[in-house]
């Protein structure tokens, strides 16, 4: 496809064999410098669709930003930056820099001074750098708007247009969006020049006989988690999918060292080696194959009961191809997916594309492992009792009993101990493996419309919500979209799960789902909006007139009246963590406070 040789080398090493539909249609025009308007869901391979051609056109001698990728969330920014680094691994001197809120500004400033060819960032933080004049887009040759509709929904579209105004008129623009609301089309009409339009319809489906589960994984514990799963899963044969050829060999060797009959299957193997591995899998002399997508394509072995996605696939189509190795011809199959916190977007994309919910699983406990080993031991003993001639051994035990006067049960226990020494039936407590949890409970309804105005769509039971106070209000220039964007981006909470927002003169209130983890609460306290930290705390008190995001007419007519607060005489407010902040923090000293009457 006329990509740069260094980029093609990386593509080959990763294991890509043929382009996905979005890649096949996007790469040629982007290589030619054309603007592009692409309509495609997450998980269709968009990142490679724009990254490969734009990396191929970089001038590495120019140590200045040449490509800017705007994403709605920091998780996606990090994901795109990592993908860019992977594709550019053979481009000497290449630098990519992710910039997003919540990361120290000093770190980003140092890296910007050092020079970067590609900037991947969230609109708010990129705008911040432009205002500070710490980022120059004068030399920009290409701009990518990734998941533009999500940026619109989170209230970033004004920031996006402001950023576009700082770019040279000759720059190339690629806009990708799952949907095309009018606001996105207006941006396209204003800022794209004669764009190529691409629409990709996802046709992904999965087999109903496959039970799909996922585990939220901490990267350092993946191997220990995998081996614990292998201990308790009722599996016949398994395929474990990883991203690279090198990883197939490394993981297969580690599993072999832990006692599993395992082999690698990758594109570096010749046909004879591959056929030998598949034959061993079929005849039962091999139980586990660690494979890449390309190497396992077309593999059909009836014994395969489990597919484990040790590395999450790059797109939804790859996921479907992977798990299709099990559950064939009406048989039942199991699919397990390892998902890191930054990969939750891909998990949601897979669920949307397949139309099936993937249930969360928890790691087996030490007791589960012990129970499984004991059950296997009993099964093996039962098989020996049924199939083997044991008369000489029975005579041996009777002789031992008569000589020593020991209960036969004690002898059996001693023999069981000898048999299980290398693989204890009651293993010692393993090192703890951190199980990650989702950032917040998801309500059944509380969705906002695509423009982020806060109008409800859909009805249903309202889940428990908690009202929080944040120390930024109308006099600081804040708008509801700023609050929605900051919380959605920094806390990983989708904007449709953010409830009612009310603006007051010097503070605001926002309703969030019950159950905010302490680490996210602490992080949100430090997040800045409109030049002020949120300093979020649990709200207590009565509310006076306020500007709510729920009604446009209310926003026009609301008066800046002082709210009534229910603070004690010290002016302290209770935080969600249970601690008290300093007296008077975030309050106006001039405004008198009204207290609740004491209960009789």
From TrEMBL:
Keywords assigned: ATP-binding, Cytoplasm, Helicase, Hydrolase, Nucleotide-binding, RNA-binding, Stress response
GO cellular component: cytosol; ribosome
Database matches in InterPro entries: CsdA_RRM, DbpA/CsdA_RNA-bd_dom, DEAD/DEAH_box_helicase_dom, DEAD/DEAH_RhlB, DEAD_box_RNA_helicases, DeaD_dimer, DEAD_helicase_DeaD, Helicase_ATP-bd
Annotated ranges, domain Helicase ATP-binding: 27-198
Catalytic activity, as annotated: ATP + H2O = ADP + phosphate + H(+)
Predominant cellular place of this UniProt entry's protein: cytoplasm
A molecular function GO annotation: RNA strand annealing activity
SUPFAM superfamilies: P-loop containing nucleoside triphosphate hydrolases
Region (Disordered): 439-462, 538-600
EC number: 3.6.4.13
A biological process from GO: ribosomal large subunit assembly
Localization per record: Cytoplasm
Segments of skewed composition (Low complexity): 559-568
Residue ranges of the motif Q motif: 1-24
Domain Helicase C-terminal: 222-369
Pfam families: DbpA, DEAD, DeaD_dimer, Helicase_C
Family, similarity comment: Belongs to the DEAD box helicase family. DeaD/CsdA subfamily.
Function: DEAD-box RNA helicase involved in various cellular processes at low temperature, including ribosome biogenesis, mRNA degradation and translation initiation.
Record-given protein name: ATP-dependent RNA helicase DeaD
């Amino acid at each position: 496809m006329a990509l740069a040789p260094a980029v093609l080398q990386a593509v080959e090493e990763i294991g890509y064999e043929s382009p996905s539909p979005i890649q096949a249609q996007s790469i040629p025009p982007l290589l030619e410098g054309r603007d592009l308007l692409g309509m495609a869901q997450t998980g269709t391979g968009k990142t490679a669709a724009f990254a490969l051609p734009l990396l191929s056109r970089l001038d590495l001698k120019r140590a200045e930003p040449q490509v800017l990728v705007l994403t709605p969330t920091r998780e996606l920014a990090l994901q795109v930056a990592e993908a860019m680094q992977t594709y550019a691994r053979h481009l000497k001197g290449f630098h990519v820099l992710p910039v997003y809120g919540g990361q120290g500004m000093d770190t980003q400033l140092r890296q910007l001074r050092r020079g970067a060819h590609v900037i991947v960032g969230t609109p708010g933080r990129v705008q911040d750098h432009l205002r500070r004049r710490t980022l120059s887009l004068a030399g920009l040759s290409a701009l990518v708007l990734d998941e533009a509709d999500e940026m619109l929904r989170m209230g970033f579209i004004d920031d996006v247009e402001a950023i576009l105004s700082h770019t040279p008129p000759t720059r190339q623009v690629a806009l990708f969006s799952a949907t095309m609301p009018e606001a996105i089309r207006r941006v396209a009409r204003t800022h794209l020049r004669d764009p190529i339009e691409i629409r990709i319809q996802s046709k992904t489906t999965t087999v109903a006989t496959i039970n799909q589960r996922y585990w939220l994984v901490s990267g350092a514990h993946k191997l220990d988690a995998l081996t614990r799963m292998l201990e308790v899963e009722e599996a016949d044969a398994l395929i474990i999918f990883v991203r690279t050829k090198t990883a197939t060999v490394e993981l297969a060797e580690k599993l072999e060292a832990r006692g599993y009959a395992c082999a690698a299957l990758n594109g570096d193997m010749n046909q004879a080696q591959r056929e030998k591995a598949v034959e061993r899998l079929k005849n039962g002399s091999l139980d586990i194959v660690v494979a890449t997508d390309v190497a396992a394509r077309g593999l059909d072995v009836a014994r395969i009961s489990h597919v484990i996605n040790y590395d999450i696939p790059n797109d939804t189509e790859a996921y479907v191809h992977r798990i299709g190795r099990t559950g064939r011809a009406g048989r039942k199959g199991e699919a397990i997916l390892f998902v890191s916190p930054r990969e939750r977007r891909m998990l949601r994309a897979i669920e949307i594309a397949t139309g099936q919910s993937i249930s969360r699983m928890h790691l087996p406990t030490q007791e589960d492992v012990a129970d499984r080993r004991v059950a296997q031991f009993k099964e093996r003993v039962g098989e020996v009792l049924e199939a083997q001639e044991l008369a000489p051994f029975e005579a041996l035990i009777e002789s031992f009993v008569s000589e020593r006067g020991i209960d036969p049960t004690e002898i059996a226990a001693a023999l069981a101990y000898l048999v299980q020494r290398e693989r204890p039936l009651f293993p010692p407590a393993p090192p703890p493996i951190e199980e990650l949890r989702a950032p917040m409970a998801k309500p059944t309804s509380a969705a906002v419309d695509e423009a982020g105005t806060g109008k409800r769509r859909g009805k249903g039971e309202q889940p428990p919500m908690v009202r929080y106070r944040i120390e930024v209000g109308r006099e600081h220039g804040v708008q509801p979209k700023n609050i929605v964007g900051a919380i959605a981006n920094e806390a990983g909470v989708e904007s449709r799960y953010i409830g009612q927002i009310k603006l007051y003169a010097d503070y605001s209130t926002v309703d969030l789902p019950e159950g905010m983890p302490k680490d996210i609460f602490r992080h949100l306290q430090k997040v800045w909006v409109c030049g002020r930290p949120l300093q979020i705390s649990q709200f207590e008190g009565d509310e006076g007139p306020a500007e709510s995001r729920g009604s446009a007419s209310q926003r026009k007519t609301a008066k800046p009246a002082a709210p009534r607060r229910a603070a004690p005489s010290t002016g302290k407010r209770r935080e969600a963590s249970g601690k008290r902040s300093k007296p008077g923090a975030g309050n106006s000293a001039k405004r008198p406070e009204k207290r609740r009457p004491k209960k009789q």
